[in-house]
Write a structure and sequence with these properties.
The protein is an alpha+beta fold and about 300 residues long. It has eight helices and five strands. The protein has a three-stranded mixed β-sheet. A two-stranded antiparallel ribbon has the order 1-2. The longest helix is centred in the first third of the chain and has 30 residues, at about 60-90.
């Protein structure tokens, strides 16, 4: 975040002095990314410090998705601004000091590559450990038996963390716009192609819009409790119905955090079956952070 903020100030100053829209756009782009990295850091702090509060039913895993979604929206706004400003400059060109702006663009690319390396290391090795707890709550009725088995969420590898992915995409977008700025400034300085400066801003805005859409779609799926995958739901169903005399009458599967999935199932079983039996069967075949099993007695 410090690297990005420092480079942002340098690019904005030089971009203003040299009239380079590509460099100025990259500077403002870096400003949003400095804010995005700050938001990502805040999300980790918030999720970590409140991970054991009972007010969060399934833990604070979705804080990461919420931060990622917000950052995706910011990325889209930046892309639209880049395209608008670039189109205006394409219609109304101004003189650009290509020689002075080019070294700053190269330095900006190096800073972005360094930031990507830092995030990539965390991307490979970071994870968030949480305690696991098991609770069983039996409820007996005249005609049905209802038992619930719960496991509280734990987090797996960070490469499925939408918050980290959003931060990485922001820095990747910065590196991409830096490359475009270098190409535009070099083309203008050595070949006189002044149109490249605003044109590269439009190209960058289009590509970044696509990245924003992909990130927004992925985070929204987690926030809206969309089934992570049909294959996972089928695997859970087959595993549970592998117990003789078992029929699943209700099944819900969703994500509750980075690499953390939950499952709630209502089962009609012939004979004496316990939720623990089904839960242990799932534990051996599917990686789930939270499981709730409700068992009803059916006809033998």
């Amino acid at each position: 975040m410090v690297l990005t903020a420092a480079m942002m100030v340098g690019e904005l100053i030089v971009g203003y002095v040299t009239n380079s829209l590509a460099l100025t756009a990259d500077g403002w782009h870096m400003a949003t990314h400095a804010g995005a990295l700050g938001m990502a850091a805040f999300a980790y702090w918030f999720a970590r410090t409140r991970s054991h509060e009972s007010t969060f039913t399934f833990g604070t895993g979705k804080v990461h998705a919420l931060a990622g979604y917000t950052n995706a929206i910011v990325l889209a706004v930046v892309a639209l601004w880049m395209m608008y400003e670039s189109a205006s400059r394409l219609l109304h060109p101004v003189p650009i000091a290509f020689g002075e702006a080019l070294p700053i663009a190269v330095l900006g690319l190096l800073v972005n590559l360094g930031s990507m390396k830092l995030l990539h290391v965390h991307h490979d090795h970071g994870d968030h450990a949480h305690d696991d707890h098991d609770h069983a709550h039996p409820h007996d009725h005249d005609h049905d038996d209802h038992d619930a088995h719960h496991e509280h969420p734990h987090h797996g590898h960070a490469h499925h963390d939408h918050n980290l992915r959003a931060a990485y995409v922001h820095v990747l977008a910065d590196a991409f716009t830096s490359v475009l700025a270098i190409l535009a400034l070099a083309g203008g300085r050595y070949f006189g192609w002044r149109f490249l400066d605003p044109l590269m801003g439009i190209v960058g805005g289009i590509v970044i819009s696509r990245w924003s859409y992909t990130l927004c779609r992925g985070t929204a799926r987690q926030l809206l409790d969309v089934v992570p995958s049909a294959d996972l739901a089928d695997q859970i169903r087959k595993s549970l119905e592998g117990v003789p005399g078992t029929e699943i009458v209700d099944l819900h599967v969703w994500e509750i955090g980075p690499e953390a999935r939950a499952c709630m199932a209502t089962i009609v079983a012939a004979g004496e079956r316990t939720p623990l039996e089904y839960s242990e069967r799932l534990r051996g075949s599917v990686d789930l952070a939270h499981v709730t099993i409700e068992v009803h007695r059916g006809p033998a």
